[in-house]
Amino acid sequence: MKEIQIHTLFGAALLSGIAGILLIGHGISIGIVFFWLPFLSAANSVRGMAKYGLGTGNASIGYWGTAVGATSAFIASLCCGSTPLPLLYTATVVTISLVIGLATGVLADKVIRMKIPRIELNSAVIAVSTALITAGFLLIIGSNYCLYPFIYIIITLAVLHPYNASTGAGENQKRTLLLALVEACMTTLVIGIVAMLASGSAMPVSDDVAIVVVSVCGLVIAVVAWYRLVKSDIYDIRWTGYSPAEH
Amino acid sequence: MAAISLLLGTALAGFLAFLAGVFEDSESNAGSASNPNSQVQLAPQIGNRHRYFNKAISGEPPANALWATTAATIAYLLTAHFGGDAFSVLVASIIGAAASTLLLCAYGVLSHISRIASMKNFEQTLYWDSLLTPLPLDAAFGFLTALMLTLLAFSAHSLLGNPFSVPLLAFFFGITIGAIGSSTGDIYYGAERLYQHYIFGSGIPISVQGDIDVKGEYGYRNSVDTPYFTMRFGGLVTGLAFGILIFLDAWSRLFTFAGVWTSVIVVSVLVLIILIFIYLLEVYTRKRYGRYTED
User: Superkingdom of the source (chain B) (predicted)?
Assistant: First the structure.
């Protein structure tokens, strides 16, 4: 099966992420669904780097990219997060993360000599995608610095995990990306719940409830699609038993 | 009053850290996470089809950072709603830990099914019972770890006066405990328990990687057996390492002889003492037992 190219997915994720920030910036909270594509793009780039032999050690490579992305968004939110122009905020987030993401990729290739094909491109993609998601989540939850560690780590795991969980000879891009979608929906669901708590009001805010509802709907659809693919890929599924070769 | 609070905080932090270490190592072993996970992953490729819970969640440090940070963040936000006294901190921490445990279960189930689906070429079957039997055990240990780390973060912040926020402290504790569990505790599971049919202490040469024990005392070995075994040593050693680390670090809050530099001086002296002790222990061990020999 033909795989989706990194730059194609990244282009779509960039537009989607920008649309998400603009919608949320204008008070439309369900714009959070536009961050699912950046999750897929970042997970695809982790896959792109880790499949060249890093295997289960993909955590380190993804940490690096997501750290650049999250840090860029945190800096941008401190500089111009309160600006009434979401477009300026978005442009700042994308520019900072793209430059630092590319720089770390070039350093890894030219100075550390990690010898991973297309590490510059993949580092930049992970950084920009993560930065867009982080920037959007900050608009939803609010720029309370106490919540930065939570935002960083929940995005990081959702980006690193799809390939890590699917590693093996039978891994394929479609199933890994569907798992990334499942985890993206799971992440936005948790963000919606945390946003309810962070709002400080006694009753949940309708914007936050909308995030939870669309995330649950997305999660159900994504899990069904992913599990169908699992059933077609897997050797066998049983409730219990032993290997036929042994008994 | 401040001195009593600091002494209480130091003792409580050390105790909570010890418990968190024991639970964390057991949680990772119930799910074959971290280093042993690579061995469980390799097993079907060399013909050892198994019934272990294959829970790969991007390494122990980030996974534990997520459970601890999620629990602490929810607890931190809930505490503001509940009023902020000690009882509300406890209730909020329990709710936060329960929420993070649900996340752990979701990631664990997705990992196991995905990994097995990628093993089609090696004829590895997905047995639901080998996933659903250890999952509640894994979740229970995960809940206790997240709860202990959240309470530890609140203790460090309030009783010990740590300037960082509760979620950030929980994040640091999660990364640290994951790293300790991965380096200290896993050896007892990965290098020993999974390789019991090889001579004790012979290590894991590349030629035998993946050739793990798939049968136990009776029938096929499962992931419920593993914490039963590792709790006796690996869990306690992980708890001891993390407990000592937090307990000694808390000492830096007990003294004030050099102003803001006090903690730097106290911790530097403690690190120096530990390094000297480790050096002497290694020299003694090498002299006492010598090199590893094939016989």
Answer: Archaea
